[in-house]
Amino acid sequence: MVQSMTDAIIHRGPDAHGAWVSEHGKVALGHRRLSIIDLTEGGAQPMHFLEKFTITFNGEIYNYIELREELKTHGYVFKSDSDTEVILAAYNQWGIHCLSHFDGMFSFALYDQQKDQLFFARDRFGEKPFYYAFYNGSLYFASEMKALWAAGVPKSHNMRMVYTYLANDLVENPNDQRETFYEGIFKLKSAHYCLYTGNNQFNQIAYWQLNTEQRLDLSFSDAAIKLRELLETSVQRRLRSDVPVGTSLSGGLDSSTIVGLVSGNQAKNHTFSARFPGFSKDEGHYIHLVSQQFETVHHDIIVNEEELLPEIDKLLFHQEEPFQTGSIFAQYCVYREARKNNVIVMLDGQGADEILGGYDKDFKFYLRELIKKGGDSQKFIRQIQENHNYSLSVDSRERLNIYAPGIYKAISKVKNSISPTLPTGINKDFFNQHVPRQSPFHEFGDLKSMLRHELTNQGLEKLLKFADRNSMANSLEVRLPFLYHELIEFVFSLKSELFLQDGWSKAILRQGVNDLLPSEITYRKDKIGFEAPHDKWSKSEQMKSLFDDAQSHLIRENIISNDYSNRWKTIIASKFLNA
Asked: What is the model's pTM?
């Protein structure tokens, strides 16, 4: 059984396989290894420790060197150079509180023989996945759901999530982060752990929460200096590897920052970029500006719809759940090209927008906060217009939300419960059966509360899942320096006005890397992100044929009507339901 489960996810670890069964036969652990730290047999898993613990672990503990030295002062002697052994020693020393010592991305299952107990844990932001299901009286868990299906767990679609995807453009449930697109299969939430003793009770317990209450009163320049220091520490730790490391480069501020910091720490930096010739949002100019600045070994990857068409099924196979745009494919191609060039680890800039206020939609939350405080809202509106060509306004509805948020929420709740609106193109019966009782969208009266929600509840998680699946599909590991918890805790301890100082998004970061990057990058006014021309792709003749078939299928199943217009989601939803 364990062999079939690990075979199903061989792409996550093609270098080695391991399995272990406890003496009483109640616990079985399997592992597929992607060798990155300690390439010897000493790093093999499942790993045993002091004849008391056994672990299977996915991810990296970036501060394992510092932790190993600290644990040595407590008398520990290590047999390997792996971070896996450090987890085991840390658990022996601190118990479940070892989690607070880790700087890393991880999901693991650790069996404590003395307590006859499994200790499951997932990293603070959900960079590494953990799925579980109860089936035939047993608990099954894995990094991907296809391993659960290999064990016989039923593959039953969760139509509530399909509705949310089609109607609300969501691929997660913010009101229950455990939920997946499959009935009976759940996620261990980020920043949570579970102590399992075989009683079919999977109780998830939070071990970390992000505090948004202001504690530090630093100046803008001092905050920027400290942010730069923390980011440099994070990059240096995430460069720890016994295999080649490269970087993604989109041409934006975040990835360019990572490229600059990596280039200062290793002599030969391979950079990889998705390119879309003829697309108005192709960022080739900025990409090559950064590549030339830091003299990287650069790789442009041309991505188009001709290549996408034969790969859609493979993409959905690896993602397992629906996704909203073709940008996922572009990311997949970048990681595939990196692996072809023998780059096994990639650093990426994801997370900066969610931490520092990098999206246009973030502006209105700070505006609300500014108006409440009696600040100069008109000045801020002018600055945002000038710096980002984005128009902010405060209508009567918004004023009610600002000055009487309790009344605003009550009215919205009553309105939604009395007459929820049928989304355009959604079949009425499907809507009535699956519309959620509670809205998946939340309102916030200040910037940091909204950013915390996006970082830890809705928004970032899907991006992390896409990156994990796309990278691991190519047997490659992606690391994200902006998701260093001490850096994030520091940022969220600052005054909110520093986030959007002088009407610039991610103002602290811009200031912190002003001497590192070309000014054309540091003070770019537009934001494109990792955007592919999926609208154009979806209107090609080949995609039109796929859409026609998909639309007919979903109409027959009483899911949508002829009025549903999103071609991409129609195709993906149909393929998902047919998979």
From this structure: 0.95
